[in-house]
Amino acid sequence: RRGAAALRHVTRTRSALCTPLTGLGGMAASTSSAQPFAGSAAALPAEGGAAAAAGAGTSAAFHPSVAAAAARVEYLRPVPSDIAISQAVEPLPISEVAAAAGITPEELEPHGSYQAKVSLGVLERLRDAPMGHYVVVAGINPTALGEGKSTTTLGLVQGLSAHLGRKAFACIRQPSQGPTFGIKGGAAGGGYAQVVPMEAFNLHGTGDIHAITAANNLLAAAIDTRIFHEGTQRDARLFERLTTFKDNTRGFAPVQVRRLVKLGIVPEGTTDPADCPAPAELSPEDQARFARLDIDPATITWRRVVDTCDRHLRGITVGTGPKEVKGVPRETGFDITVASEVMAVLALATSLRDMRERLGSMVVARSRAGLPVTADDLGCGGALAVLMRDAIKPTLMQSLEGSPVMVHAGPFANIAHGNSSIIADQITLRLAGKDGVVVTEAGFGADIGAEKFFNIKCRRSGLRPGACVIVATVRALKTHGGGPPVVPGQPLADEYKTENIPLLEAGCANLAKHVSNVRGFGVRPVVAINRFFTDTDAEVELLRRKALEAGAADAVECTHWSDGGKGCVALGEAVVKACEEARAEAASAEAGAGPFRFLYELDQPVRAKIEAIATRIYGAAAVEYSDLAASQIDEYERLGFGNLPICMAKTHLSLSADPSLKGVPTGFTIRVREVRASVGAGFLYPLLGEIMTIPGLPTRPGFTDVDLDFSAGGSDARIVGLF
After folding, report:
1. Catalytic residue annotation
2. pTM, whole model, 2 decimals?
3. N or C, which end of the chain has less CB nearby within 10 Å?
4. Which residues on neighbouring strands pair with residue 695, listed in sequence order?
């Protein structure tokens, strides 16, 4: 159903499904998140020509199943749409992908034929196994269309596993429904370097984002409900109801024992309700302390979430129903689900137990006495962990050429920490073995995604990367050199369709800044030049020369969008070389004195950490704080949260917090308008400039083209329009 018949359909409907390469440069910008191609347009087969002769190179695949998957991909010219390519292949059964990866049947929980959850028992089984090379993929500051970072991640892994004989894994984030149905589209990669089936990947997956939404909003409901009930009941009655089970017996639930310990009513380390006094044995004072959280509504930082771009939910009023009037209505709002702290906890947890502790420790507000109120104080931590119990397991999928792909967590990099899960990286590094490679992706430009990868994710996991791939395109660098704006929904300007050396040369300063930033962490940067068909040889050579002058370990032209893994073989070789050099350097260094280093120390004051990122990574001249942000920082330091790392929320389109400032701006001031505390996840969260934590939809959203095609007949239908 998904094989030869779909390929015949692609061929018959090429004019509808393909983007003709001869006219690509002048298309509406909203249709593409990269659409690169190797060589000049003149070198391409004519419209309707035979399939490209780009061989699969499968003789060097690390496993026969990968060789078989890569061999049956037909590389067409012109390159069909992403969804057409995905639907033209029959993915390997997920059991075969798992077997090639080294995952046992007992460690696999299939969700249909092509997706499966992976048990955390793999880590226990392989706890003494050597780990592979660790690579993070970041980028320059992109245009609003994206520059093919996910595509490069998948192309690199395909090049390593299907063409260079390396056991390689991609670890990527689950895409949000927001951009999938908004402007940017899905996050499966593109062309012949993508996750398949792309429909499953870009839509519900195995339901992790839905679980996060449910958990987040359960906690939001618990907050407002607790305020309501505390406002309508006296202490004794409130305590009685909180400690009465359904069978009318009295006692404490396990989660309530945590609050008893916090209040000092029972000794530290008590976990069993049987070791606690009976509720009636508590003094009236302790009963009141236990039952009354006394939340100050003005300090509530927890917001509801939805996995949709809906600007009209940015500000709402709750508590206005006819039965809620005894409470006090309050102003709040929604964030997009991927900005939820629950998502960050999932991505940064190292085990199920660790996730449970982090969920319970999330601070949602303060009491009127100024004390932090947590999810466990509300009695909600255990229920959140139950909702997230299956989500802690990564999802195994595959690339178009059969490379194993681990999909887990999905925080945005501009309004969250922007990296897939620690657990997925830990599992795949053990599965890869000493000479294998794990490629993980950090969202958006290296100024936010990679910075948070190094300072937050690596600090938490203890893992150290051997190389950082920086994806660069001629198009984006021309915008940084002063080119016209690239606006979704509008045609690309001529500057992006014809050679313009001065514009590109000026824009390469942005790439140089990112290379310098990565080197500042002691990591080798390798530049991946994601070539579009409109790029000229002179432009690609200039970009390569500028990257090397800036200090990149190498700079490699990549054509994975059109050629699959074969188009990333040179990048794979450069990355492995950089990783092997890093490993040798670490081995020869004194114990604990490897080249990797953090930007700041955790015991520095909060303002010093914020200013280190702003001045050294972004290039700001100064940082200023709103009165709200200043008071929040002071309060967090008073409460003992000042030793947490920093997760800046800012635009991805500029090194600054102003998306209109391109290139490498100087002399600007970063304004911190608000600082939130994600205590359970383990970071402070400053909001810079005008960044929004739930995006809006454009005039013509991506969902306009998404539908079901019933033309094949039968009871099923084919999904169309995803990109």
Report:
1. 149, 151, 173, 184, 413, 444, 532, 561
2. 0.89
3. N
4. none
